[in-house]
Amino acid sequence: MFSRDTWNEILESLSANWFRTLMTSFGVLWGIFILVILLAAGKGLENGIKQGFGGMATNSMFMWAQSTSKSYKGMPKGRSYNFKKGDVQAIKDNVNGLRFVSPRNQLGGFGGNNNVVRGLKSGAFNVYGDYPEIINQQPMNITSGRFLNQNDLKEKRKVAVIGESVKSTMYDAHEEVLGSYIKVNGVNFQVIGTYSKKGGGGGSVEEAQKEIYVPFTTFSQAFNMGDVVGWMAITADDNHSITSLKSEVFNVIKKRHNIDPKDDRAVGNFDLYQEFNKITGLFTALNAVAYFVGVLVLLSGIIGISNIMLIVVKERTNEIGVRRALGATPGTIRGQILMESIVLTIISGMAGIIFATLVLWGVNTLLDSIDSSKMMFVNPSVNIGVIIIALLILVISGLLAGLIPAQNAIRIKPVDALRTE
C-alpha cells in the first residue's frame, strides 16, 4: 500500500485537476485554521485573566466580621463584633488542612483615606498591618531591600515595605529609598524594601502598587488597634480546598463570639478559590464551543472532499474496470481511494495548522512589543496536545470523506466499467 508506485498514483490523481483540488482542500484548511485560532484565543484570554490575579494563592478566601442577623443567647440581632487575635490561633488549632491564617488590619481603601507624608510630599495609600506569610498569599516582586520578617513582628519594629507607585509619588528619581522615613498618620516608619506586582488580584495593577506593608504588631500598637483583627486571609493546603473548609472556619468564629450557628450573614467572606473555579469552568466551556465550531467548519470541508472524490471515482470508472480485470481486489481499490482522501485531507489540514501558527506568531510578536501587563489578552497559543488532536481529527475526517466514494468504487463491475465511455 505504501509503495512508490502508490504514492506516484496518488500525486498524479490529485494534480490532474489542481485547481479543483485546491478549492476542495480550502474547506479543510479553513476548518483547522478556525479551530486552532479559536482555541488559541481562548488560551490568550485565560492567560490574561490569570495574569490579573497576579500569582495570588487562589486556594484562599478573605474573611471579615459583619453585624449579626439573628438574636442568640439573649443578645439582639444587628450586634456588631470584631475578630480578635485569639481567633487566629483558634482557627489554626481547630481546622485541619489550612496552610496560612493571616490576620490583617488596614488604613485607607474601604476604611477611609489616610495621610502618608514625607517632607513636603503627601499621598493617600492603603497601609496594611500584616504577617510575613502574606507574601506567599499575595506574591510580589521585591525590587529592592527585603520584605517583613518574624523579628520585625516580634520586636514591633516601625518598618515598612512600599510599592513602586508609592516610591514614584513620594520620592524624586535620584533619591535613596531604603533607610529613609515616611510618616503614616503621624507615625514614622523606616522603609526597608520596595515591591512591584504583576496583577492586582483581579483589580487594578496600578492600585496594587499603591500599598504599604508594616508589621501587624507594630500597626496594632501605633494605631491603637489593641488585639482587634480587621480581616483575615486564609489559604488551604494542596490537599484541601478552602471552599470545603470555610464552614469549619465560620463555626469556630461563631462559637467564640456567641453567634447563632445558622446566622450566615455574621461572617463576610470572598472565596477566591470558588471564583477562580468559575472562571476555569468558563474557559472549559469556551474550549468546548471552539471545538464545536471548528469541527462544524471542518465538516463542511470534509463534505466537499467527499463530493470531489465521488466525481473522481466516476471519472476513473474505466481505470477501475481495467484494474479489476487485471486482478485488483476490492480491498486494493478501496485502499487506493481512501489513501487519496486521507492524503488530501492531511495536506490541507497541515497547511491550515501552519497558517494558524504564522498568524499566532505575528500576534505574539505584536503583544511582546507592547506593555501587556494591563491587558486581558496574553500569549495566545495552543499546546502540542491540541495539534495531536487536530491530526487525529484529520485522519478520521479523511477516512470518512473517502469511505462512500471507496464503497462506490468497489461496486463497479469490471465488464460494466470497461463498457463505459
Shape: elongated
Total number of beta strands: 14
The fraction of residues in strands falls at: 15-25%
Biggest sheet details: 12 strands, mixed
Whole-number tally of structural domains: 3
Rg (CA only): 34 Å
InterPro entries: ABC3_permease_C, MacB_PCD, Macrolide_Exporter_MacB
Domain ABC3 transporter permease C-terminal: 292-414
Protein name: ABC transporter permease
Family: Belongs to the ABC-4 integral membrane protein family.
Key features of this structure:
421 residues, alpha+beta, two-stranded antiparallel sheet, 17% strand, transmembrane, ABC3_permease_C
Furnish the topology, listing elements before pairings:
Layout lengths: L3 H12 L2 H35 L7 E6 L17 E2 H10 L3 E10 L8 E3 L2 E3 L2 E5 L3 H4 L3 E5 L4 H5 L4 E5 H7 L10 E4 L2 E10 L8 H4 L2 E5 H7 L5 E2 L1 E6 L5 H15 L10 E5 H44 L1 H9 L4 H39 L15 H28 L2 H6 L2
Helix pairs in contact: 1-12, 2-10, 2-12, 3-9, 10-12, 10-13, 12-13
Overall description:
Belongs to the ABC-4 integral membrane protein family. The chain crosses the membrane at residues 21-41, 288-313, 342-363, 383-404. It is found in: Cell membrane. The chain has 421 residues and is α+β, with helices and mostly antiparallel strands. It folds into 3 domains: 4-54 and 277-419, no CATH class; 67-97 and 237-265, no CATH class; 99-236, no CATH class. 53% of the residues lie in helices and 17% in strands. It has 14 helices and 14 strands. Strands 1, 3, 4, 5, 6, 7, 8, 9, 10, 11, 13 and 14 form a 12-stranded mixed beta sheet that branches. Helix 2 crosses helix 12, helix 10 crosses helix 12 and helix 12 (330-368) runs antiparallel to helix 13 (384-411).
